[in-house]
Amino acid sequence: MRGITKKIHLTLPIPTEEDCVSDQERIQRALKKQGVDAVLPLPILRKLYPFCTEENWDFTISLAYDGGQWTAVNLEPQDTTACHYGYAADLGSTTLVIRLLNCNTGEILGEASVYNHQIQFGEDILTRIFHAKDQPEHLEQIRRATVDTFLEVFAQLENMTGISCSECISMVVAGNTTMVHFLLGIDAFCVFSSPYAVHTLNPGFLCARELGFPLLGYVYCYPGKANYLGGDIISGAIATRIYEKKELSLFFDIGTNGELIIGNREFLLCGAGAAGPALEGGSVKTGMRAVPGAVERVELKDGHFHLLTIGQKPPQGICGSGIVDMLAQLFLNGWISIQGKFLPEKSPLIHLEEEEYCVTYAPGLNFYQSDIDEFLKTKAAAVTMIYYMLELTGLPADEIGHFYMAGAFGAHISKESAVTIGMYPDVEREKLVPVGNSSLTGAQMLLLDRSILEYLDRIIETMEYVQFGAVDNFIHLMTAATAIPHTNLEQYPSVVDEMKRRGLLR
Amino acid sequence: MRGITKKIHLTLPIPTEEDCVSDQERIQRALKKQGVDAVLPLPILRKLYPFCTEENWDFTISLAYDGGQWTAVNLEPQDTTACHYGYAADLGSTTLVIRLLNCNTGEILGEASVYNHQIQFGEDILTRIFHAKDQPEHLEQIRRATVDTFLEVFAQLENMTGISCSECISMVVAGNTTMVHFLLGIDAFCVFSSPYAVHTLNPGFLCARELGFPLLGYVYCYPGKANYLGGDIISGAIATRIYEKKELSLFFDIGTNGELIIGNREFLLCGAGAAGPALEGGSVKTGMRAVPGAVERVELKDGHFHLLTIGQKPPQGICGSGIVDMLAQLFLNGWISIQGKFLPEKSPLIHLEEEEYCVTYAPGLNFYQSDIDEFLKTKAAAVTMIYYMLELTGLPADEIGHFYMAGAFGAHISKESAVTIGMYPDVEREKLVPVGNSSLTGAQMLLLDRSILEYLDRIIETMEYVQFGAVDNFIHLMTAATAIPHTNLEQYPSVVDEMKRRGLLR
């Protein structure tokens, strides 16, 4: 492991009159022999005596890298190199997920998550931003809530593993630009307001204690590219290593916002745009989070719904992956048109309720026309980003070597359904790769491999950021993408085949 | 000035949607254009908003160098580059002297000094060391006293100049190894006890606030070579630049201890040894510090003393420079022998008092045989270091290009008298250069010229440290050096000439 922390066991010769270099130098020379130039800061200098004498010069030194140099952050008696821990964190606006890692082996010792305590100041991020705007006390509340969120997860991890945060050296955090501002205690109004020049995108390595964390070393925040393209996405790009591949790759992280990066080792384009809450089930009337009782798989066969719920509980609503299946199945069975409109003559399950068509997919649970419309708008926004970016590269969709879909949504939806509704490009299915929480993966990778730092800034610098809002024909492109799978059917040959097979197309 | 601090006035374009890099990057890019890669730490990141907006992006950034990188430490509205201040300090065990400098011009804006507050824990350094030894509360008392000493001088300088320490960026401190340990709050027993492996010799740049100083940036402590050859001497070597001269130079700092460095740009030898308090008038019965009323010049002519006192006050005692004159004059007038023994037949002023010969040099003031003996022992110790070191170089005394004498003592004694008693080598007088408080000068130089850091560690590393205590024939050499000017008269041709002229030698 060539991570951002080290633990080195030293057994040094006891000073004699013939060998009487200073304690500091004795240690620094020994470290240098192991290839490490390290600074011994004041707290460590103060600890040298009587520690070294008492421990008979047999101890373990913990070192933290700050991007420029190694700093000694702890001395422990004897050999404790086996206890070498660090954190990787994905600081989302909804959830904070942290992994505790064995920094010698890379083994994940524990993973825990909690809702972001910032939620008390607003469910959505904008409310929080306005709460803190130009009100230092409110900003401090939010900063404190952010820190407390971390402390809660640290405590959970300690319960799980017996390893406390004061035994951990450093932490890598991947978060969007707003989250990083709040973590640092900086006003984040800049993120959402013109001219979108935020206060910091690359705070680098910060002393953990200065941030309020009782870790020994540093907290590194993944740098961001722009206000809407933060360290969480850069971390995802690192996780998928799209910047080093010869083939064209597309990395897509979609939630309330969609962020994507397309490119290869030659170039990288990136962009971000609003997607809306539909993908997370947020604007669907019977939508719900992916918790037990949520419909996650939908099959429509011989006029009947076959549902799979999380935890095999009776259906209480439908989550994102269920919605994608639902749309695909309604479409492939001809119950909705290419424009996503219900065709009520196709099934008695389709009926009017309060002047709106809907289909009853489970007892008491309806899927409405407005749900479809809302979702397709979101899908269109997301897909348009993809096609627009592809167009900028001048390359056709079938040049895509890998399509990486980040997030829980990408991990759970059916590839077939997503292609059917035109949410994923119609490429060979093995090219469609759900990557899960790639922000967390990228954070973990950097914790364990500091060589990423050598090219990270350069990658971000060479990235070209596309402002979708500034794109003239974006609305036009979006309208075309609202159709299922897309107005331009040629881009979806496998869907066309399936439509033909089912007699929906001749 | 290429010092360890910078102030840079920035007038930056106000962010627009077309130019919306982060505030942090906007500043870092502007600094980079001026050739500075700078880190913006958390307190500065937190200050960016609303500061930059409110100041319309017209402000001055203060930067401090930490040996590896530049760190932003302050933001001030508009152009304050003219107010660019720093401190150079000579932390002696008796006195702390600090200069306040204009870091743009190098101008000395003020200089002040106070007695080291550590004195309350012991007049001499060993008492203080024992007070603190293995007693953390006592060590903390001494550390606190050290910091308070600085704060008192800062306050004096503020009274003199109106410039407070919170307006100063960084400080360079030259102090001996014990003083640096105490400043950092580290037990210093190691300095005086076998195996003489001290805890730190090169603490480097320390955060001023961590040390207890309200400065903006760092405190740099001059690195030392060994327990008895501390940063104060290294600073003096830097001040005299003996390490870059082709000619052989000798740097000598004598007080209670004598430290010396001999060499040129090819090699450097250094050593230290106890000298005793005699040179500062400490063991002379009527000895006193160089304050008004102290005899500082002595001439003996036609059997009478002609005295000069500091402040033209009636004589109350004799200080170091007076003692050297006294010995030279007694010797050149034949009142004492080459062994420094009174020849009572030479003057009625020489008489017995309590079974000891002495000479009355002013009403009620006697100079005793034991005073002479004590002083000559000290002189012998000092001179022997010089000859021993010279011998090690294999070069004769007349190869010495410059003999630099540091300290108040060196600044005030008569060169002729010092050569006469064999305290200085008998070289051309212009080669004998008193350099005053060279520790302070070296500290000031480094504050104003960080390029010294590029070679400082290397110089110290190439220095060879000679343990006088470990030298076999040191006592033998010392005995030879007790004579006036020296047993080996050949080394003192000008003294021999004068002795012949006066009929003391044929």
UniProtKB/TrEMBL annotation, chains A, B:
Domain RACo C-terminal: 247-495
Superkingdom of this protein's organism: Bacteria
Parts forming coiled coils: none
Gene3D superfamilies: 3.10.20.880, Domain of unknown function (DUF4445)
Name by which UniProt lists this protein: Methylamine methyltransferase corrinoid protein reductive activase
Domain RACo linker region: residue ranges: 5-81
One Pfam family from the record: RACo_C_ter
Domain RACo-like middle region: 85-244
Organism expressing this protein natively: Blautia hydrogenotrophica (strain DSM 10507 / JCM 14656 / S5a33)
InterPro entries xref list: Corrinoid_activation_enz, Raco-like_middle, Raco-like_middle_sf, RACo_C, RACo_linker
